[in-house]
Amino acid sequence: MSDVQTIDLEATGLRAMNAQLQAQARQTNRTAWEIVNARGAHAIAAGLDAPIEVTVRGSTGYYCGGMNQQALIHVHGSAGPGVGENMMSGSIVIDGDASQYAGATGHGGLLVIKGNASSRCGISMKGIDIVVHGDVGHMSAFMAQSGNLVVLGDAGDALGDSIYEARLFVRGKVRSLGADCEEKEMRAEHLDILRDLLERAGADARPEEFRRYGSARKLYNFDIDNAY
Amino acid sequence: MTDHDPKGIPRTTPRQSATFSRDVNSDIRRAAATGIYDIRGGGAKRRVPHFDDLLFLGASISRYPLEGYREACGTDVTLGARHAQNPIRLEIPITIAGMSFGALSGPAKEALGRGASAAGTSTTTGDGGMTPEERGHSKTLVYQLLPSRYGMNPDDLRRADAIEVVVGQGAKPGGGGMLLGQKISDRVAEMRDLPKGIDQRSACRHPDWTGPDDLEIKILELREITGWRVPIYVKVAGARPYFDTTLAVKAGADVVVLDGMQGGTAATQDVFIEHVGQPTLACIRPAVQALQDLGVHREVRLIVSGGIRSGADVAKAMALGADAVSIGTAALIALGDNDPRWEAEYNALGTTAGAYDDWHEGRDPAGITTQDPDLMARFDPIEGGRRLRNYLKVMTLEAQTIARACGKSHLHNLEPEDLVALTMEAAAMARVPLAGTEWYPGKPGATF
User: Fold this and answer.
1) Which residue among A22, A81, A165 places its CB closest to the CB of B195?
2) Locate the Glutamate synthase alpha subunit C-terminal domain: which residues (chain A) (predicted)?
3) What pTM did the predictor assign?
4) Cβ separation of A146 and B227 shorter than 8 Å?
5) Counting CB atoms within 10 angstroms of each CB, which of A9, A64, A76, B347 has the fewest?
């Protein structure tokens, strides 16, 4: 493993820092990077596409790790809105809490939030796996298309509203389910998925403690009796 | 029926109600029978004040024209010089509006790319992502970032020549999209990460930002991901054009795309299309005013769409302050949509050429707004591209003809002073004098 390359964001500036990280080739051997003085800046480590490890010291603003491909991003702090939005692969770990729309529209990869996630976590998710060690806010997994959302704590109002084919696993209480979301049978295949995700997310929980929620598929074809 | 009743008293002629017209009554009967609102494609069909209500004055003793076929009249436009390293330079100021693969067939998208590229202009993706055919056949391709984010990925984002953040569209300001199950083929379903055959709903709000302050940060992120290379457009519906334009500029847009209510959609509720949003003509001057008030008119570019049909419309929109226009419905007609050659098949669908708007049903006889392999096979993308190129060329020549007659050596030099209005409404909206007067409603300092 190569030495850690440290970038002082305050001294370097956002554009130069992201340009340096984005310039890392897919076969790079400069694999470990550390960003200091993050100070809530927006779009930190957005648009990366290389198997590098980026450690962020401090909390981040909006869209940290946006559209990430391959990179492993670890935030030693909390994350602002839209962390890991539309990410394709790789992983993002947030030690603290995450604000709204964490993992929004993500297509792939793993997003781990060790604290709580605010509202609309996993909104329109399209294949991403999200593991939240704490609670998630209202309207989480709204219009979630595919992928897995795992919540070790509680879920707020209207979980999985207008959900498509994403799988939702919640260990704690669900305040309410959204339109067309219902509790589903937990089968062996789901326990296997959950076991794997919990392990990869470093979560201390057993798959059997969770309930699974998904689409009742009643909104899939327009019916006047479903409109309100 | 005789003119008199059996007692010899004259009958009154049967009289249709203007309020309860045949059209209205048919809507009521349809609603009563189905319990569901009418969904259709296209833009507003009702008569609204439009470019037809404006005229150019042309040259006279006080204005000197340019020689029609000999003197230069420029048509090029550069978009995105405000922030982007690689602004887009188009040879003509007529772009192709965003229309999705899904709503349109793959060959139709290819034809749009071919025609636009041959004419020296750009085309635009839509809700559903970027197809290889479209990228391959489009010299300049604008990639839309929509609320659904179907097919959105950073590789395509970096392959795009510009990014258009779609906040709204003129047919349905405040509304999301829909693509009914008939058109969700295997390929469309895969691109959108959805099950095949379902009625697909697109969100009306973006999933990861709300309001202008967030939009500014979203644009920052898009610029960071694409290395500040490509222009960022913001597309808004004709709702509150002064404020929407102001906020788009504040958020960092290089280009504002403004779509009036005549702008088309693949599918939405008829009531939405006809009753929400403002006519294109009413939107341009407030948007230009916003750019002027901010001191960025001609720096932040304004593209106007919604009911552009001819070079006259192009010239009028530009005279009112637009830098370019965009066409969608007109481009589809140029490709062959609603062509009378398919009249028998339109009749079989219960409609007639020119009125067919059930694009969402996927049974388009012209093979353009469909995913049905047999219907798609009727459409030749090479011939379609040639027709679109021809049409764009004609529009450009028409606009140049008018501009030269007004003494302008570039379409951008057209100005409101070149125009008069035929109606009070158009005069008020366009802020140009009613023909034969020096007055328009709302003119500063004017008295009755």
Assistant:
1) A165
2) 26-190
3) 0.95
4) no
5) B347
